[in-house]
Amino acid sequence: MEMYKLSEKIYQKLLSKKTRERGEHLILWIALVSFIIHLLIIVLVKFNLITNIESSNLLKNPIAAIYTPFSFILVYEVYLLVYYLPKSTSIYISKQYEIITLIIIRRLFKDLSDLTLSENWFNIKNDLQFTYDLISSVILFYLIYLFYIQRTKNFINSDTNKFDDPSISKFITAKKWIAAVLVPVFFITAIYSFFSWGIGVFQPDATHAISFKNINNIFFEQFFNILIIADVILLLISFFHTDEFHKVIRNSGFIISTILIRISFSVTGIINNVLIVIAILFGLLVLIIHNKFEKQLAKEHREGKDIES
Q: Are 77 and 102 spatial neighbours (Cβ–Cβ below 8 Å)?
């Protein structure tokens, strides 16, 4: 009982609706201020008032300034992912998909600053990457829409409220503990990634500095590593309250989907985009088949009740 009260207290401090709303307003202000600061830095670089900095179109083209506020919005999306973790597995997974899609949308702003408008569009690496990202973002947007439709389906095949089941209540408590731990872990990881990147910008020769070449991977590469560990722990804990085949396959499939997204950070070009699309498509197909199982089980349950009555 004491452990439960402690977990609830920590959970309410870090992941309550009130904390989420405060965090949302704070991030919006930070995003706005960061956008203005980025624009100012671009102006200072243009007039050579800042010289000791790694060369990048992110500091030359005003369009690229949108990249910075988008980065802070993505950090808030990470918080929302953790926020929904104890509430719904499917919403939690859909947040992962939304995050990787927003990363590609953010990358489009960077791609725009690197565009070379010419007749050799399909022979220029940056222009090709922009094309891949543009097409991928539309495909992913539609796949997430289909995932949303599937996750909102509900099949009732039990007379009891699931929250009355002690095993499920313990599982939800365990998810709250994991969510509460993930908040400071992600926060520390974000700060470390930001400062490592900052060192790489202002001191390009510094050891362990993150290069501008990997700017799209900053924080999120480590983020998905941690997410995979959390997902595996959740899968193992889930066995304490269910061993239903379709649920085990669904949860395992979601982990495979997350791993594929993480692998995408290790490659570039069209392979990166293909891996991300495959990852979300795989998760969607797993959920569709899972829902068919749920529908069939609900049908059998209703037919069983009709026979008994």
A: yes
